[in-house]
C-alpha cells in the first residue's frame, strides 16, 4: 500500500510511522552490537584499555610538552599506578554486553539520525528540506569528532589524574572494571553530545527559540556553564578544564554564526 501524504496522516498513522522507524533503529543497533560483541576482545584490549598504557599517544605528546617546559609530569611515568579487577560474578560478562550495546549505538549513529530525519522531513517545506540535506553528514561528523576528542583528550586526562591521585601511600588503586568502563563511556559520550551544539542551535533558531542576539547577550553566562561542564567531565585541575573548555567555546562561536545565517535566510525568504 502506498504511503499516505503527511497531510492526510492521522495521529495514529504518525505513531505507526514512528514505530517502524524505531524498529529499524533497534535492529541496526542490535546487528552492530552483535558484531561488537564478537570482536569484544579487540575492543577492550586495543581501545577501551589502551589509555592505561603509557605509550598512549596523548601521554606521549603531553610528556614531550612537559619536558620542553621543564616540568615534572605523571605523563612521563613508566607505568600507570592502577590495577583493574572484577568483584562480581557477572561483572565481566555485563561489561561485555553493555560495551557491545554502546558500540552499537555509537557506530549506528549516522543511521539513527537518518531514520529520525526520515520521520521528521515529510513535515518540512521543500525549501527547508533543501537547506537541511547535509544534516545527517554534519551531525554525524560532529558526533564522531566529539567521540575522538573525548577518547584522546578527556579520557586519558581523567585516567592519569585519578590513577595518580593518592591520599596516602598505604592506599593502592585497585579499580573495579565497571567503574573504569563507566569513566571511559561517560567521557566519550558526553563529548559526542556536546559537539552537537551547533546542530541544536540550528534547530532552536529555526523554531524561533534562539536568536544570535540572545547567544551574544548571554555569552558570559555560557562561559560559566562551559567551565562547569568542563569541571564535571574532567578531573579537577585547571589545565584539563581549559583544554576541554576551548573547543566548547569555539563550538559556541560557530553556533552564533550558524544562528545568524538561519535568521538571515528567514528574513530573505519573508522579503
The end-to-end span amounts to 41 Å
Task: Compute the CA-based radius of gyration.
Answer: 22 Å
What fraction strand? under 5%
Largest sheet: 2 strands, parallel
Q: Please work out how many helical segments DSSP would assign.
A: 12
Q: What order do the strands of the largest sheet run in, or round the barrel if closed?
A: 1-2
Q: What's the helix-strand series?
A: HHHEHHHHEHHHHH
Count of individual domains: 2
Please identify the structural class as seen in this structure: mainly alpha
Q: Average pLDDT, to the nearest integer?
A: 82
* Extended strand count: 2
**Uncertain runs with pLDDT below 50, 5 residues or more?**
none
What is the overall shape? flat
Percentage of residues assigned to helices: over 70%
Subcellular location: Cell membrane; Membrane
Main location: membrane
Keywords: Cell membrane, Membrane, Protein transport, Translocation, Transmembrane, Transmembrane helix, Transport
Membrane topology: Multi-pass membrane protein
Structure description:
There is one protein chain. By secondary structure, the protein is mainly α. It folds into two domains: 10-191, no CATH class; 196-271, no CATH class. It has helices spanning 11-38, 40-48, 57-69, 91-107, 109-120, 126-131, 135-164, 177-194, 197-206, 212-217, 219-233, 238-270, and strands at residues 83-85, 174-176. The protein has a two-stranded parallel sheet with strand order 1-2. It is flat, with a radius of gyration of 22 Å.
